Recover the amino acids of this structure.
């Protein structure tokens, strides 16, 4: 394995992890909430019409654009991480291939949907007036729900499959590998939970649990990045050796 490539992807993963854990929540709490984003989102949920949110976006268009870009940056940064992790963790070139492409697809889907949502929200905000508030809010709410379902159900489930594929082998190893593996499995479970809740009721808000799943994913990226920087070239060898080791019972019989 090319040491420079492993180290650079590890550094990228740690950067993306810190970004998701610190920068995204900091911007939400430090910029969006003080400017009324939470109130607008709550009012839209109660009214079952996104007019309050679109009206808020009309007056805070710069914040809307910045936040969407802040959400997308770490996902794009780790878009090639699934390919590297499969080659590092699995010594067999055929193993982990499905999980690898699930990870790439999941990251790509969530990134694209976030950018599409930005374009549609900016468009709705630019057209918003008091006279067409209800119609514009209803139209954006429909597209917003559709995009949420695509990102959180399809994208989230693909990420969950990838996380399980990558982290299940790590759980068998001690130390930092096991910690990263357990955190990755929990993150996969949260992505799956968000997908299930939205599938059950697409119109309900999943902001808190969705934010928690993304923050936990960021923590996993940070640990995984440290793992890649420190000892990724040895992972495939360790897992292969453990898989080929004889069972304790077989050793006793011999």
């Amino acid at each position: 394995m090319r040491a420079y490539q492993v180290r650079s992807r590890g550094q990228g993963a740690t950067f993306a992890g810190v970004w998701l854990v610190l920068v995204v929540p900091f911007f939400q709490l430090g910029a969006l909430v003080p400017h009324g984003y939470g109130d607008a989102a709550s009012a839209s949920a109660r009214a079952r019409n996104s007019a309050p949110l679109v009206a808020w976006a009309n007056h805070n268009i710069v914040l809307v654009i910045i936040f969407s870009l802040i959400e997308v940056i770490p996902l794009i940064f780790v878009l090639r991480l699934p390919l590297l992790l499969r080659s590092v963790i699995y010594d067999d070139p055929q193993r982990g291939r499905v999980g690898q492409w699930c990870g790439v697809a999941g990251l790509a889907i969530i990134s694209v949907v976030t950018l599409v949502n930005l374009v549609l929200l900016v468009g709705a905000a630019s057209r918003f007036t008091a006279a067409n508030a209800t119609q514009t809010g209803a139209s954006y709410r429909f597209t917003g729900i559709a995009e949420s379902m695509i990102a959180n159900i399809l994208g989230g489930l693909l990420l969950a499959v990838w996380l399980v594929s990558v982290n299940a082998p790590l759980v068998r190893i001690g130390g930092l590998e096991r910690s990263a593996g357990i955190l990755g499995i929990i993150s996969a479970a949260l992505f799956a939970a968000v997908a299930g809740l939205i599938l059950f009721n697409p119109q309900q808000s999943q902001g808190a649990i969705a934010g928690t799943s993304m923050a936990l994913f960021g923590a996993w990226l940070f640990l995984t990045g440290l793992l890649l920087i420190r000892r990724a070239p040895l992972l495939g060898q360790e897992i292969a050796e453990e898989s080929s080791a004889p069972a304790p019972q077989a050793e006793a019989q011999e």
Residues 247-254 have pLDDT under 50 and may be disordered. The first helix runs from residue 3 to 32. The two ends are 36 Å apart (CA to CA). The chain is about 85% helix and 0% strand.
